[in-house]
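TL;DR need C-alpha cells for one chain.
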Amino acid sequence: MDGATFINGDVDTVNITNMPNYGKLEIAKTTNRGYSVPETGAVFEVYSTAYASYAAAPTSLKDTLTTNVAGTAITKDLPYGVYQIHQIGIPAGTISAADTTVTIGATNGATVHRDLVNTVYWGQVEINKTTSYAGNVKLEVGLPSRSITQLMLPMRQRPRKRRHPLQPMQAVTQFQNSCHTEHIQCLRRVLRPALS
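>> reply
TL;DR here they are.
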C-alpha cells in the first residue's frame, strides 16, 4: 500500500469503556375490592438477586420504597440486572404482596412498571342472640324478636272485668307456637293471674 508503514510485531492498544445501563422501577400497590383501592404507606425492599438479602447488597444495588397516596413509588437509578421486590411494611387493612423479581436497565434510562394487586379476602359474620334469665344465659334458637313480656303486655293491660276470650290454658297453647319451650312454665305463672 502506498505510503503505508508496517512495523513487524507492533501492538496497538485501544481502551474501550463499558458504560452500564441504568433504569428505574415503579411500583403501584393496590387492593381489589371490586374497584381499585391505592395502598398508602406500603414499604418495599428492592435489591439485586446477586445477593442473598437486602442487608447483604451494596447501596448502589438496592433501594427502599414507600408508596404515596396514589399507591405508587419509584426507585433511584439502578444498574442493569435482576432485582428482588420484597414488601416489609403493610398498611392496616391490607396484606403483603408476594415476593417477585424484575429486570431493570434492559433499556438504558427506561422505567419498568409493576402492578402489585391484592385480591379481596371475604369472610362471614356469625350473630348469636342470647337471653339472660335468673343468672342463666341461653342461646336463642328460632325465637321471635319480641320477648315473652312484650307478647303478654296487651293482655295484662286489659281491665279485669273484661275477660280474655281464651281460657288460661288455651292462651298458653297459643303462645307455645312462638315461644321457646324452656319459657313455657314461666309463661303459665304470669298468664294465670293476668287472665283471672
